[in-house]
Amino acid sequence: MVYSRLIRHEEKQQRKRLMWALGGMVGLVIFLFVFGLKILVGFSLMVDRVRGNTPQQASQNQELILPPTLDPLPGATNSANLTITGKSDLGLKIVLYIDEEEATTLPVKDDGTFSFTKKLAEGDHTVSAKAKNNKDGVSDLSNVLTISIKRKKPELTITSPTDGARIVGDNNTLTVKGKTASDNTVTINDRLAVVGNDGSFSYTHVLSEGDNTLRTVATDPAGNQETVDRRVTYQR
C-alpha cells in the first residue's frame, strides 16, 4: 500500500509539472504574439539610430527614383562636340556616363530636361545616365545610347572611266563604276547610285557633246564626304 501511495503521489507531481510546462509555453506564445512585433520594431529603430539614420531619413533614402530618359542620338556623327539631352523628374541631379565612366553631374532644369555638351574622341562610344536626390539615393541606369564619332573622309575609288577619257561615236552614254564602303551613299552629278553589299556601285550617265565632268561623291553615315572628278570628252 505504501508503494502504491508513492506511485500515485509521483504521478500527481508529474501531472503538475506537465501543467506548469504547458502553461509556460502558452504564456510564452501569448507574450511573443502581443509584444514580439513591438520588440522587433524597437530593435530595428535602435539599429537605425546606431547607424545615424532616423526613421524619416531611412524612408527618404529608400525613396524610389525613376531613371532618366536620354533622347536618341544619331548612329554616327563627325561633329567635334556631342550634345546629350534627356528628361527626368524635377529636383534631381543627373550623373552622366561616357563609356561607363562618370563624365559630369548636372541638375535637372525647371522644365524637367537636361543637356550636356562634350567633345568625344574618334571611335565608338556609349552614353548612359543615373538620377540621384539630395539624400544620395540613386536610380537604376537609363537607356544606353551608342554613337560612332568619325572625322575621316570615306574611301572612294573610281575604276571607270579614267580621267581625260575620249568617247567617239553615236553612243553618248557612259557607265561610271567604283567602290566604297557598303554603308555609304554615292551620288554622281547629284544623281543617286545604288551601292551593293560589297561596296561596288555603277551609274550610267548621258554625255553632252564636248567636255563633261563626272563628279562622284561618297558620304558616310557621319556626314563625311570624299569627291572624285572624272573629265570626259564626247564627240559624235
Structure description:
The protein has helices at 2-51, 55-61; strands at residues 69-70, 76-77, 81-87, 93-98, 101-107, 113-119, 123-132, 145-149, 156-160, 165-168, 173-180, 185-188, 191-195, 200-206, 210-219, 225-235. By secondary structure, it is α+β, with helices and mostly antiparallel strands. The chain has an eight-stranded mixed β-sheet with strand order 9-11-14-13-12-15-16-10, with no helix packed on it. The chain has a five-stranded mixed β-sheet with strand order 2-8-7-4-5, with no helix packed on it. A three-stranded antiparallel β-sheet has the order 1-3-6, with no helix packed on it. β4 and β5 (101-107) form a beta hairpin.
Ranges where pLDDT stays below 50 over 5 or more residues in a row are: none
Overall pLDDT metric: 86
SSE pattern: HHEEEEEEEEEEEEEEEE
The CATH topology of the largest domain corresponds to Immunoglobulin-like
CATH class of the largest domain: Mainly Beta
Domain module count: 3
Q: What assembly state would you assign to the polypeptide chains in this entry?
A: single chain
Sheet/helix structural class:
alpha+beta
* Number of H/I helices: 2
Reported for the largest beta sheet, the result is: 8 strands, mixed
Spatial ordering of strands, largest sheet: 9-11-14-13-12-15-16-10
Number of strands: 16
